[in-house]
Specification:
By secondary structure, the chain is of the alpha/beta class. It has a single domain, classed as Metal-dependent hydrolases (TIM Barrel). It is 41% helix and 15% strand. The chain contains ten helices and eleven strands. The strands form three sheets. Strands 6-7-8-9-10-11 form a six-stranded parallel sheet. Helix 3 links the parallel strand 4 and strand 5. Helix 4 packs across helix 5.
Amino acid sequence: MNGYTLMHEHITIDLSGVKKDTDCQLDCYEETVKEFKKLYEYGVRTIVDVTNDGMGRNVPYVLNVEKETGIRIIQSTGFYKEPFLPERVYGQTIREMADWMIGEIKTGIEGGVKARMIGEIGTSKNTMTPTEKKVFDAAVLAAHETGMPIYTHTTLGTYALEQAEYFKATGLPMDRIVLGHIDLSGDLDYIRRVLDYGITVGFDTVGKNNYFPDAKRVEYLLALEAEGRLDQIVLSEDLTRKSHLKFKGGIGYSYLFETFVPMLKEAGLKQESLDKMLIHNPARILGS
């Protein structure tokens, strides 16, 4: 796989119905294309779009962005977390949900586009609800039967250890599973304990300084580099709102390369470490 990969982004997403906020309907096509063309200039060649059913997934929209920008966009299957789950999930069995995911992987979502990621599947703050557990069980079945990787959502970095323990018991290869938003835990020792499971963690809310400061992300990554653990880290920004894009005064998709990578380099992080997080680890997870 050539070039950099962002492992957790949303090309378009609509959580506005539940959140009662139109800012959460990210549908700024022209601005997204403009920003992705800049990402291409920075060396990004692949983006994993973890927008799934119930999150406003729009396959034709994403295909048009891909065509206009030259960036390969990997699309995902699965269901997110409560309260954003489609109503039908509540009446389906684990097997029915798994078969639906397998269908999107083997047959395709729309127009022959096949899902290449199961995600983002999520847990609530400090807990996994019974319905979220159903989704996880279905995702594991689908992963066992297709070999697809899984990308999860943790709410503010909580319940990550429990997710890791859950996946360990399933027999899935831990190096093909990513737990998202672990940077938001704000606890380096906690992150180390998650990494001890052999699982990959996402520092994938880069730039969201209102949640957790990038200066601390840099500090944590330097510590993990010194410990030889960056082969279990991937990077991304997880932009989900109109106000996150530059034309609305937000950080934009290029922030990681324009601001965060320079911060890492100034602090002494090696280029080979960046390549691990942005090239080699994604290639291992995606099998490409």
